[in-house]
Design a protein that fits this description.
The complex is a heterodimer of chains A (551) and B (268). Chain A is an all-alpha fold and 551 residues long. Chain A has helices spanning 5-11, 14-19, 24-39, 44-55, 67-70, 72-87, 92-119, 123-128, 135-169, 171-202, 205-232, 254-266, 272-307, 317-328, 332-347, 349-373, 397-404, 415-419, 426-456, 461-482, 499-522, 526-544; strands at 407-408, 490-491. Chain A has two domains: 73-307, no CATH class; 326-544, no CATH class. Chain A contains 22 helices and two strands. Chain A has a two-stranded parallel sheet. By secondary structure, chain B is an alpha/beta fold. In chain B, a hairpin with a 2-residue loop joins strand 2 and strand 3. Chain B is globular, with a radius of gyration of 20 Å. Chain B starts with a strand and ends with a helix. The chains are: A mainly alpha (551), B alpha/beta (268). Chains A and B meet through helix 3, helix 4 and helix 8 of A and helix 2 of B.
Chain lengths: 551, 268
């Protein structure tokens, strides 16, 4: 086990922790263990090979690398892009609110999707709580564990904007920026934890877990919408001329709080709203943090509910499910896996945790694009345009859903695949994918399509059908490209790394589908020809794609 | 109801439960447990699935809250928020949660330190104890690769590193081979002889019958029998603990159920 530099930094603040009733040496040890374990989240196969080395007397370490760090470059690039808002001008309230809006969005979504499992870990309870360690220490260790990642996440995303700020606006700006980033991180962690606490307090068992999933969807939608609102706060056309006129409802838009201190402190603008915003930016994170410390033990206690068995689900969906699977499946085995995947998707916590946020995005994305580009014309200007092709954006969740299909918390249960007399894996794959399409992808698309049909008029119905077919084909292609692993058979921890890269070709493919569709609309009857082609493609793909070896 | 506390030790009880009740949503899991446990006893804590055995232990460890009644472990109550009494408790849970990406050395040292041992002491003790269990070679191997029995040995060691005064063992022998079982049983007897209290939950009645000084049978959240094996036998006219168990929990249709079960199996 390595001595970590991070912990060394933490040692400087030893006394502070003592004041909060935290047993520092113990907390430090817990943190060290946690970070060591994170460093070992490697694919199971590699993990085994490495263990063999160890058994042969080889020294461990050296190769230990936290997968998390290899994904940071993505945030770095994102930060670099957003740094242009910093450099653009002197209209701080606008620029910095936007920057903080982007950062909060990125960091909070990452926190919710990747670190909920840290916040909601109940394994800790059995191992740590049975030892003479007080709750506050455990909770603080957990908090710092998350903060550790937040630090690097924020660092990666903010380093370029910070540099730009330092060069462009000087040291004062830089320092203020850093201070506010810390406050922002604090706020994000605390808010997330408090939301979970509130949920845990009022609900229990399975219902609670479902609720967390819904909160995730809701939150992603709200954040995406809030982001739109933020842009609308200002006259987007001319940055330098943009005038900020505070209204009461802007007090609820958190990024604006963080934008205001730049005006007050650096521009000396002491108008009341700015002062109030600045005050909020300073006080709310600190106050909520104090509240959090007070409530931490309660969160830990309520986590127990996650382990309790929930009330049993009523029988009833079974019959209905059986008839769908019978309708769609072409062999008994396919039907079995259709039903298996269907129920697993509904019950597998990890799957929901990872997938539901992307459902939120997919729901909202087409509309965001629609409204940003159709703004001048207004809603009534939509019919007659080709903007309905934005509906393809809702297929952005397809790769994510399909990718997650192969992971499970109880991945070890996949031994049944080897024991059972399953000769051919094609029905397994096809049944699983079909379940994903019918349960998640198509309903989402249908909702989206109905709204689009209302907005654009009945004229686009053929287009919507074509898009539906395209998404269907896209699902198979994504599956063939991504998965080829037995459903729910791999450990989720392996999912973090490198998958982002694999998504890019699929995003391009989706763009390709949309482009071809666009081209087809330019030719008379083109859409119908395209529809026929897609039908044929679907026919072939659903037959062949599961057995064919694709790169 | 058989109620006969066999132990007349002069020592004051290490565990006292008074009218302990616990409700999960709409169902009472514990319906008023009264219990005094003195040092130096091996207590066989048995009962059907869902009788409330694990819940009792979890309450004493402070893992489950919301109970009513009085709980005292070394005179401390878990709900007071103090954690020092846990220094004197060792726990082997039924569902073995371990940080299995750690090596045995790392895990055991960590647990030892949580119990307040010095790192070097914890490590050397862990190493020597593992050696006793014949696991010297895997000291630096990740627990994830361990077999069930090996994992169980690690758990047992982790519960003993700090030389606790009370041991809560939930199916501690599961996964162990016959030789290791003998070793562990002997260890328990020796520990009890030194005045340690061992709370032993298991479904394997033969073992409970052999090693326990006192047997407590729980059913439906109540204690339905409490006494030494001899006493239970005397009062229920049955030969083995298994039969006593069946009788007291009102279960006598095992033959019928088995027959019906096999009939269903043969349907295909």
């Amino acid at each position: 086990m390595k001595e970590m530099r991070t912990l060394w930094v933490l040692d400087r603040f030893k006394g502070v922790f003592g004041k909060f009733g935290v047993d520092y040496p113990v907390m430090r040890r817990i943190l060290q263990i946690k970070l060591t374990m994170d460093g070992r989240r490697v694919p199971t196969i590699i993990g085994k090979a490495r263990n063999k080395d160890q058994a042969d007397g080889g020294k461990v370490n050296g190769t230990e690398k936290n997968q998390f760090f290899s994904s940071l470059w993505l945030y770095l690039i994102f930060g670099a892009f957003s740094s242009m808002f910093v450099g653009l001008g002197d209209n701080f309230i606008f620029q910095m609110s936007l920057i903080f809006g982007i950062f909060m969005f990125m960091i909070m979504t990452s926190l919710i999707s990747d670190f909920s499992s840290v916040l909601l870990d109940i394994r800790d309870r059995n191992i740590l709580s049975t030892k003479p360690v007080n709750r506050r220490t455990i909770a603080m260790a957990k908090m710092l564990h998350i903060c550790f990642y937040m630090f690097f996440l924020t660092g990666a995303i903010a380093i370029v904007p910070l540099g730009v700020g330092l060069v462009r606006h000087g040291i004062g700006f830089f320092l203020l920026f850093v201070a506010e980033l810390i406050l922002m991180d604090l706020l994000i962690v605390v808010i997330t934890a408090l939301i979970y606490l509130a949920v845990l307090k009022f609900f229990d068992g399975e219902k609670l877990k479902d609720f967390i999933n819904y909160v995730q969807i809701g939150l992603t939608i709200v954040i995406a919408l809030g982001y739109q609102l933020l842009i609308r706060l200002f006259d987007f056309v001319d940055l330098q001329q943009a005038v900020f006129q505070p209204k009461w409802w802007e007090f609820v838009i958190v990024p604006v709080w963080f934008g205001a201190p730049f005006e007050t402190l650096l521009h000396g603008d002491n108008s009341i709203p700015y002062l109030l915003f600045s005050l909020l930016a300073l006080c709310v994170p600190i106050l909520t943090f104090l509240l959090y410390i007070k409530l931490m033990p309660s969160l830990e206690r309520n986590l127990q509910k996650l382990a309790d068995p929930g009330s049993r689900k009523k029988e009833g969906a079974g019959k209905w499910l059986k008839s769908i699977s019978h309708l769609l499946g072409s062999s008994p085995q396919e039907e079995v896996f259709f039903r298996f995947a269907w129920t697993m998707m509904g019950n597998e916590r990890e799957f929901k945790l990872k997938v539901y946020p992307s459902i939120g995005f997919s729901l909202i994305f087409p509309f965001i694009f629609l409204f940003t580009s159709g703004r001048e014309r207004g809603l009534s200007g939509l019919p007659g345009t080709k903007l309905h092709l934005f509906i393809y954006f809702c297929a952005l969740l397809v790769p994510n859903v399909i990718l997650m299909l192969k992971y499970s918390r109880s991945y070890k249960a996949a031994w049944i695949y080897r024991v059972l007399p399953i000769g051919d894996r094609v029905p397994v794959y096809r049944g699983t994918l079909m379940a994903a399409v019918v349960r998640l992808i198509l309903p989402l698309y249908a909702v989206e399509a109905v709204v689009f049909a209302i907005l654009f008029g009945g004229r686009i119905v053929p287009d919507l059908i074509v898009a539906g077919l395209a998404i269907l084909a896209y699902s198979v292609l994504s599956f063939a490209y991504l998965s080829k692993a037995l459903p729910f058979s791999e450990r989720l921890e392996t999912a973090q790394q490198g998958e982002g890269m694999r998504m890019i070709p699929l995003m391009l493919l989706l763009g390709g589908f949309a482009l071809v569709h666009y081209a087809a609309t330019l030719v008379s009857f083109g859409v119908y020809v395209y529809a026929a082609l897609l039908l044929a493609a679907n026919w072939v793909l659903w037959q062949k794609a599961f057995s064919a070896k694709l790169p | 109801m058989i109620s006969n506390n066999s132990s007349n030790s002069n020592n004051s009880p290490v565990i006292t439960l008074r009218d302990l009740r616990m409700r999960f949503s709409d169902r009472y899991v514990l319906n008023g447990i009264d219990l005094d446990v003195n040092p130096g006893q091996i207590i066989g804590y048995i009962g059907p699935n869902g009788a409330g055995k694990s819940t009792t232990v979890k309450i004493m460890l402070g893992l489950v809250e919301g109970y009513t009644g009085e709980v005292r472990v070394f005179g401390e109550s878990p709900s007071d928020g103090g954690v020092d009494y846990k220094k004197r408790i060792g726990y082997v849970p039924e569902v073995a949660e371990v940080y299995d990406t750690l090596t045995a050395r790392e895990y055991l040292t960590f647990i030892g330190e949580l119990y307040g041992l010095k790192p070097a002491d914890a490590e050397s003790k862990a190493r020597r104890l593992l050696e006793m269990f014949g696991l010297k070679d895997v000291f630096d191997v990740r627990i994830a690769t361990f077999s069930k029995g090996m994992k169980q040995k690690v758990l047992i060691i982790s519960s003993l590193l700090h030389n606790p005064d009370i041991l809560f063992l939930d199916e501690p022998l599961s996964g162990l081979d016959a030789n290791s079982v003998m070793v562990v049983k002997e260890i328990l007897a020796l520990l009890a002889a030194q005045g340690k209290t061992i709370f032993y939950s298991s479904h394997i009645m033969d073992v409970v019958e052999k090693i326990s000084d006192r047997i407590i049978l729980l059913d439906g959240g109540r204690i339905v029998a409490d006494g030494s094996f001899e006493e239970l036998k005397g009062q229920s006219q049955e030969g083995s603990l298994e039969q006593i168990f069946n009788q007291l929990t009102g279960f006598n249709e095992h033959q019928e159920i088995a027959e019906q079960f096999v009939a269903i199996v043969q349907e295909v």
